[in-house]
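Box 4.2: Ligand-aware structure prediction
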Amino acid sequence: MIIDVAIPVRVSNSFHYFIDDELGRTLSIGSIVSVPFGSRTTYGFVIGFPEKSEVENSKLKKVTEVLVANSVFDENMYQFLKWVSDYYCHPLGEVIATAIPKSFWSPNKKERKSKKIEKCIEEKVFESGIKHELNSSQQTAVESILNPDETRPFLLHGVTGSGKTEVYMNVLSAILDQGKTGIILVPEIALTPQLTERFSGRFPNKIAVLHSDLTPKERVHQWELITQGTAQIVIGARSAVFAPLKKLGVIVVDEEHETSFKQEDSLRYNARDLAVVRAKLLGAKVVLGSATPSVETYQNALNGKYVHLKLSERVNKRAMPRTSFIDLKDKGQWYAPNVSWLSRGLVHAIGETLDQGQQAMLYLNRLGFAHFLFCSDCGHTWRCKNCDVSLTYYQNPPILKCHYCGVHKKVPHTCETCSGVRLDTMGLGTEQVEKTLISIFPKARICRMDRGVIKGKKDLEKVLVRIQRREVDIVIGTQMIAKGHDFPGIALVGVLLADASLNLPDFRAHERTFQIITQVSGRAGRADIPGEVVIQTLNPEHPVLLAASQHHQEEFYRNEISSRKLFQFPPFHRAVMLRFQHSNAHKVESFAYQVVQLLQQELPRRFPKCQILGPTEAPISKVKKMYRWQCLAKSESVKEIQGMLKLLFEWEKRQKSSVQMAVDVDPVNLL
Ligand code: ADP
Ligand code: ZN
């Protein structure tokens, strides 16, 4: 018998193998076999039983072993995976291996048994299980989503604190009553313990949780819950979009605008987009929820491809927070002559908040103490030897660290070029904010929430509980604080430097800024106290900041969409980023130029709707000793983009170059 096997390697075709008839009959599409491949043995997924092979039979190799005879995916899943492979121009074997990782079907037997099994959710520390009477907009949303005649995806566009989670739970409950199942995708499961607990409180013993912190044993256990049909609900980060639930009835994507739904290596898929595709193939419902939808999703809601459901008020009519700006260009506002990043106005507001026994939260998306260290005598700065970035200065413990490759070293006392001793720092990080606030408010209980202090789910839960129990007066944090947490006691939110993300070399810089300011502001005033937001900025007149602070969402999206249209960016044009890497700077540069030359020759004739921009050195031109170049291809036509990529792959195969080329369809990160 001949079988067709998809192998997880970077070649796009599958391979034929011989297998004994008797053994072959135990297999089906989706079985896993071990096969010889080149000089090694590897595994692959059975995807067909061809009558004969175009390869000369004497050259066909034999299957080494059957690893899993039972199919690990059904026909629907197979169609979905093939779609993914075509769309992202990624080999089917690698796509299947991403969807069904080896760790699920082949647990590592060497794993030490002593590791205790952690239950999915250990102690109930947050509100859970409580069922609220839905308000009328929530009710309308639930009914629209459940309407059997509506097959389009839904954008559940609800302001922060409008009760979106309650809508998801009611939809899910009805779907389970129909005997079907559901997937809830969250940006990062470790950052959303409250959501997970609310679901498990409401649907006890029906939930499997997939996240990267699972031990191999837990991973296999969760997988069994899903494949054996014990779990009807899967909650997980992006890879959960592949969860092999039977009778899938709904996929919810919470905080659909979050960039973490995009995988940034190997198969560069976007789980939000795949949720829409998988649901469509199955005739299942898909709900994309956000207070600040991505421009792509918003445009789909505007043009009627998606149903736009709005929750425009917070539950119990709680007011949206009041926002004011402080212009940091005005030195008269500075807290002290040498503290240009903190204003007297914000310090005053924090003081009042503390006097009233409320909590304040300060946002700065910058780790460490300062951006970099420099010598005031010769101007030398300390940079990473592997990457084209400066080393971040940490004070506690005192190290210089690279955020790209992780390299770190002790802070020096003398300059390595001129031996000077007058070393100084530039730029602001959360450590410095904490230190300064401790000196201004010595009695306040201050805590920091960033990746420097919070390494995992446990640390985060501890901090969230302390905040909730009012054991903390001031929270200082990075993006981590904006992730949909429900903190009833936060009366004041301060944004330390709103401009930080406005000027990034990324066509989504405005969108990101709008989202983060809105999300951070949304943490204020979620209980019975009115919220206040103070935004420090160098551009108090900037239209994006104004729109975010005044809750003028429609205006923001209208402007942003027309500029995307004008500059031919997504969602109006599809984009593909081609990334090139090599340890030799010249090689990578000349390869990038060759690619662009080839495409410029071929495109006008074969793919006239495609355009190619670049090549350019990547904004971060070296990471981990690899030099990086890139170019961006754009087109209105997905077909043409796919055709262009096929042409490129064939050309690349013939080049046999050592330069690595990665293709990123619908790129999110442009740096
Ligand atoms: P969102 O996800 O839109 O930010 P949540 O679903 O977290 O909002 O809801 C915010 C808070 O309001 C939660 O504490 C939730 O339990 C509560 N809540 C939600 N719906 C209702 C309702 N209909 N009545 C009362 N409280 C509600
Ligand atoms: Zn580095």
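In the box above, the bound molecule is zinc ion. The pocket of zinc ion (ligand 2) is lined by residues 384, 386-387, 402, 404-405, 407 (CB under 6 Å).
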